[in-house]
Design brief:
Oligomer: single chain
Number of helices: 14
Structural class: mainly alpha
Distance between the termini: 14 Å
Radius of gyration: 21 Å
Strand content: under 5%
Number of domains: 1
Amino acid sequence: MHGEPERNRLGSLAVAISVVLQVVRGFLMGCADLVPGVSGGTVALVLGIYQRLVTNIRDGAGALGTLLRADVRGFLRRLGEIEWSFLVPLLGGIGLAIVTLASALRHLLEEEPVAMAGLFFGLVVGSVVVAARMVERWDLSLVAITLVTGAALFAVLGLGGGTVADPPLWLYFAAGAVAICAMILPGVSGSFLLLMLGMYTNVLDAVSDRDLAVLAVLALGCVVGLALFSHALHWALATYERTVMAVLVGLLLGSLRILWPWPTGVGSKEGTDGTLLGWPTAGEVAAPVLLAVVGFVGVLVVTAVAQRIEGRTDEDLIEELENS
């Protein structure tokens, strides 16, 4: 039988493992948030932390609301209700991914747009399968909701806009408030929303160039956007969970349009930059299809692993460490 010091050591190790896993989850979400057509909310859904994330964001928004009402005691009380051990490592992982990968992703999207689109397409198809499994008791009404939602988003994604030249700071604020909603809404890509607003390249440049003033305004917009949106989404999940999940599956399906690797057909090199639907030449098929399969299988594997890990407490980890 282990003594108290040994159990304390194992407890500390279990906590460290939990933190590392959460940073990894955040890193994966951050990677997704950088990609047009892929949502950080999708990754949260696949990893099994989606509703927990929405709950903590709602609690954080509630704390900000009490502070704006000058209720300092209520603000401190609401802060204590937030799972900081869950949220801080997750946000750290998201930030780490954005800071370290923005430049590399911009390079890959420029140099290998078709192959990258194929990979992202497979990732989202895998996410559709995972999300559909989360809907209990599919019926005709839910199928109809999914199809209508998917068709609507599919049509909307056919719209596009050019890059805004020299945008003012207030536009960065607005872009952050709109795009951050994708972090808690699977199927809607924050990066694609930035593309729609003509701000995607500007935001990537600000991250790559470490433009602190622009990033601060963008972050403030993100906070405001989350505060306004999280309450509504949490209420919807609590009240109409099956319907909301059916809508989310539809959003995932509709978002596939922006990830079709060959948007303008023969010889296309646009990847995720186009929204027309074409067909590839023979030499363009193998790499995107192979990467799509890799992405699809990867999502299913990550989901299986996440289901084994998610829901385990530190005590569960201690017990496993003791028995190993």
